């Protein structure tokens, strides 16, 4: 089973918590970590932006990623939210099995 680490950002801790709760309750992610206090620098609409953001890290399966992305986009306040998935190449086998067992199976 291919596992994924999904990096996302949100504008506030409350928004991140709300999104994370939905992802876990709907079994699209086994776990969502919320890391507050990130400073982001980026260009949006031809202007340099500087914002405080909150990082969310979800652990899920590759099969869940498309639905997870779709769900986050419906919940998120940003026009174009940051949602990036990375392969999990290894780790604690017991934890990795737990991720797979904690999300809804996808075909």
Q: Layout of helices and strands, plus pairs?
A:
Layout (H helix, E strand, L loop, with lengths): L2 E8 L2 H13 L5 E14 L2 E15 L3 H11 L7 E5 L5 H10 L5
Antiparallel strand pairs: 1-3, 1-4, 2-3
Detailed description of the structure:
By secondary structure, the protein is an alpha+beta fold. It has a single domain (3-102), classed as 2-Layer Sandwich (Alpha-Beta Plaits). It has 3 helices and 4 strands, in the order E-H-E-E-H-E-H. It has helices at residues 13-25, 65-75, 93-102, and strands at residues 3-10, 31-44, 47-61, 83-87. A 4-stranded antiparallel β-sheet has the order 2-3-1-4. A hairpin with a 2-residue loop joins strand 2 and strand 3. The radius of gyration is 14 Å and the shape is elongated. The relative contact order is 0.30. The model has no long low-confidence stretch (mean pLDDT 96).
């Amino acid at each position: 089973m291919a596992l994924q680490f999904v990096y996302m950002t949100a504008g506030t801790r409350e928004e991140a918590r709300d999104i994370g709760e939905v992802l876990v309750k709907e079994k699209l992610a086994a776990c969502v970590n919320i890391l507050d206090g990130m400073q982001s620098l980026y260009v949006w609409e031809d202007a340099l932006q500087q914002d405080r953001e909150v990082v969310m890290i979800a652990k899920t399966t590759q099969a869940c990623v498309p639905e997870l992305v779709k769900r986050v986009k419906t919940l998120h306040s940003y026009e174009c939210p940051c949602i990036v998935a990375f392969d999990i190449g290894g780790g604690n086998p017991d934890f990795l099995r737990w991720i797979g067992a904690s999300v809804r199976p996808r075909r």
